[in-house]
Amino acid sequence: MKKKSGVISNMSANTMDTCTNLIRNAKKIVVLTGAGISTESGIKDFRSKTGIYSLAPEYILSLDYFYQHPKEFYQFAIENLYHPEAVPNKGHEILAKWEQEGKVATIITQNIDGLHQRAGSKNVIEFHGTMKTATCLNCGKNYSTDEMLSRMETMEDFYICNNCIANNKLEQYIKPDVVLFGDTGTWFSMAGIQTILRYMQEADFVLVLGTSLLVAPFSTFPQYRRQGVPLIIINKGETPYDFGQDTYVIHESIGKTMEEINNQLHP
Ligand code: OAD
Ligand code: ZN
């Protein structure tokens, strides 16, 4: 099998030109994003040296841990996953612009920070949910995270819903609307996955930004693009897809790379 991957560490002109030309002519880019697109907005990613998992093991973001230690879970989640003060950066902004220009069909993100939407992107799938809200697992009452914050300050059992009564208190827990390990989410359904696979099938090419592509099922999505459809990866770290067929890899900052590509598109 012939490999066409262009793995570079210093933005080789060739790979940049290829990527720029693909983007120039594209009408249906599917963008897959992860925590790395938000680090330039001051938000920690997960698996880099200074990432969230340097502070605690992955287990802290599991459904088991949430049920067993709801107070500690909330404390950690509010401190590390909730960033209402963060603003979109160049990467988010350029993606929103490319959507307006009719290039980007959809963004499928693992991020729970809402920064794609705040930058103006309209067609965004929040595959791992959002940190903006929380929901009672029994009655479905929705709470804003700001409301949860004030409950934390004033109530001992702030994580237990007082809008309903259940036989078992665990059923009445109010869980942030994020997908935890061992958990599912809105998009984890037959219809949800089918919608995503349809996007993957229709893509001119797939653009991966700022994800280590290590967490399934999200990490499997690039595999569902049609044969011969290019995969462009802009990510500082390595991913399991770096040496795949029709794959172009730029191990660089997302903001810097996207700005350079965008400047070439609009000289
Ligand atoms: P990771 O921390 O695993 O990967 C982020 C990637 O972005 C790393 O490979 C970094 O090298 C890269 N990166 C960071 N800053 C960058 C920058 N400015 N420019 C270019 N690359 C940069 O984060 P995710 O792949 O998003 O799920 O993690 C996937 C999931 O694991 C998360 O959604 C979260 C976590 O557990 C749940 O909590 C369920
Ligand atoms: Zn309730």
Looking at this protein, list some descriptive labels.
single chain; 267 residues; SIR2/SIRT2 'Small Domain'; binds zinc ion; Rossmann fold; alpha/beta; binds 2'-O-acetyl adenosine-5-diphosphoribose; 2 domains
Summarize the topology.
Blueprint: E1 6-8, H1 13-25, E2 29-33, H2 63-68, H3 70-81, H4 90-100, E3 104-109, H5 115-118, E4 124-126, E5 129-136, E6 142-144, H6 145-154, E7 174-178, H7 190-202, E8 205-209, E9 231-234, E10 247-250, H8 254-265
Parallel strand pairs: 1-10, 2-3, 2-8, 3-4, 8-9, 9-10
Antiparallel strand pairs: 5-6, 5-7
Helix pairs in contact: 1-8
The protein binds 2'-O-acetyl adenosine-5-diphosphoribose (OAD) and zinc ion.
Zinc ion is lined by residues 136, 138-139, 141, 161, 163-164, 172.
Walk me through what this model shows.
The structure is a single chain. With 267 residues, this protein is of the alpha/beta class. 30% of the residues lie in helices and 17% in strands. It folds into two domains: 1-42 and 87-128 and 185-267, 3-Layer(aba) Sandwich (Rossmann fold), CATH 3.40.50; 44-82 and 129-178, SIR2/SIRT2 'Small Domain', CATH 3.30.1600. It binds 2'-O-acetyl adenosine-5-diphosphoribose and zinc ion. The site of zinc ion has 8 residues, from loops. This is protein acetyllysine N-acetyltransferase. InterPro entries: DHS-like_NAD/FAD-binding_dom (IPR029035), NAD-dep_sirtuin_deacylases (IPR050134), Sirtuin (IPR003000), Sirtuin_cat_small_dom_sf (IPR026591), Ssirtuin_cat_dom (IPR026590).
